[in-house]
């Protein structure tokens, strides 16, 4: 199953220049070979198919070296597009191929994924020959990117349509299980079943290494070669950490979606954020946001329900056994407590996750 994602691109000046060159070169190649094909048919009744055109393009590039400055896959794609136009014409699905005009309101070119040449790095989209382009990352791309169409509007705005191959989900049997999740810092998540989910050790190790590299970088002299080296090393490590985290969150979200028909969480950023702002900023923000997103779209795939309870719901302070509220539990350091009303013993996070589940089911109208 293919899924298309549309993003606004914000290329810098030099990236804009290369994109514009690519648009122009693709148009040129398309028109040039359309002309060649018409001529070949007129004069010698020969059909120049894609293979012949592609072979000829190599020769043409020697004559017109500016064609080498742009994405070669995009140029080949123009030839394929031309071939498709011809096929459509022959099969009476469309009129005879038209020459492309530079005055067309929408200019675009398409390029294919080859050897990981297209990828998302943070808030940048890496495109062949263009480099890392800033883009409005409105959502995560799921699955494997197969191609990207870069478009330029008449008003000079740039967009990318990213096509990804998303694995087709098998339908799941309805589950009778429901779970509440308390997201935190101590443990990544505590489930209403009592299970505490910790971040993997590999992640903690990679993060420690990252912090060490950050300190090392700050000691290097500005503008020095060594500083540049350290910066590259740091960027690679950042990516490593992000990949480990993403992989872990994928596995966890898939597992939770498979096991449960209903998943309830809090909208609010996890408790404890105030206490350790820097840590939570670095580790938490990205993880929790990504995790919630993953749960949402996987729920959509598999017909599960993910519900966020009201942000002012005091999940930690309510006794999940009798429902009375104990305001003393606001104190984050209290990990265990006994309900003064019904004497039930509580683990702070497990109690909270049970309450989140209960509240979620009430809000969903599944219990009174
Ligand atoms: Zn109680």
TrEMBL record:
From the record, what ranges are coiled-coil? none
EC number, as in UniProt: 2.1.1.37
Q: Does the keyword Transferase apply?
A: yes
* A Gene Ontology biological process term: DNA recombination
Describe the location of the Probable transposase IS891/IS1136/IS1341 domain by residue ranges.
165-277
The record's InterPro entries line, in alphabetical order, gives: Cas12f1-like_TNB, RNA-guided_DNA_endo/Transpos, RNA-guided_endonuclease_TnpB, Transposase, Transposase_put_HTH
Give every Cas12f1-like TNB domain span. Answer: 288-356
User: What are this entry's molecular-function GO terms?
Assistant: DNA (cytosine-5-)-methyltransferase activity; DNA binding; metal ion binding
Q: EC top class, in one word?
A: transferase
Q: Which residues form the Transposase putative helix-turn-helix domain?
A: 1-43
Q: Which UniProt keywords apply?
A: DNA recombination, DNA-binding, Metal-binding, Methyltransferase, Transferase, Transposition, Zinc
- PROSITE patterns, per database record: PROKAR_LIPOPROTEIN (PS51257)
- To which protein family does this belong? In the N-terminal section; belongs to the transposase 2 family.
For this protein, the record's PANTHER family field holds:
RNA-GUIDED DNA ENDONUCLEASE INSQ-RELATED, TRANSPOSASE
Q: What is this protein called?
A: Transposase, IS605 OrfB family
Species name: Dethiobacter alkaliphilus AHT 1
